[in-house]
Amino acid sequence: QGGLGDVVLHPDFAKNQWVYLSYAEQGQGGYGAVVVRGKLDLTKSTPQLTQIKKIWTQVPKFSSGQGHYGHRIIFGSDNKLWISSGERQQFNPAQDMKSNAGKIIRLNDDGSIPSDNPFMNQGEIAKQA
């Protein structure tokens, strides 16, 4: 249920070459999902991603490497990036606004938080949902 989640092209990929990847990573406290974006450089003999930047991290990390990472990604009709963040079979994080686990996340294409997200006044993590 971990590993690679998605590979998605930006809606304006033909103009900006942004590619988005979601995957599970190990970090302080355990495992969690992340989303990165990078530019696909096709000018070299071997295509490569450049300008790779992590734009979202599942908080908190969980000690178990198993269970419902989620981390599926899609762009909406408004060009916002939507991320599913699994509750990692813990069940309670979905109710905790200090955790982005068990939530649907909405971000701008660069990972910044849209000013019209519904929980803007409920803390840094809650702003993502």
How many alpha or pi helices?
1
Beta content: 35-45%
Apparent shape: globular
Strand order of the largest sheet: 1-2-3-4
- Reading the helices and strands in chain order gives EHEEEEEE
Mean pLDDT: 91
Main sheet makeup: 4 strands, antiparallel
Give a structural overview.
With 129 residues, this protein is mainly beta. The chain has one helix and seven strands, in the order βαββββββ. It has one helix at residues 13-16; strands at 4-9, 18-27, 30-41, 48-57, 70-75, 81-85, 103-107. A four-stranded antiparallel sheet has the order 1-2-3-4, with no helix packed on it. A hairpin with a 5-residue loop joins β5 (70-75) and β6. The two termini are 22 Å apart. The model has no long low-confidence stretch (mean pLDDT 91).
Provide a quick synopsis of the model:
By secondary structure, the protein is mainly β. Helices cover 3% and strands 42% of the residues.
Q: Topology of this protein?
A:
Elements: E1 4-9, H1 13-16, E2 18-27, E3 30-41, E4 48-57, E5 70-75, E6 81-85, E7 103-107
Antiparallel strand pairs: 1-2, 2-3, 3-4, 5-6, 6-7
Keyphrases for this structure?
single chain, 129 residues, mainly beta, four-stranded antiparallel β-sheet
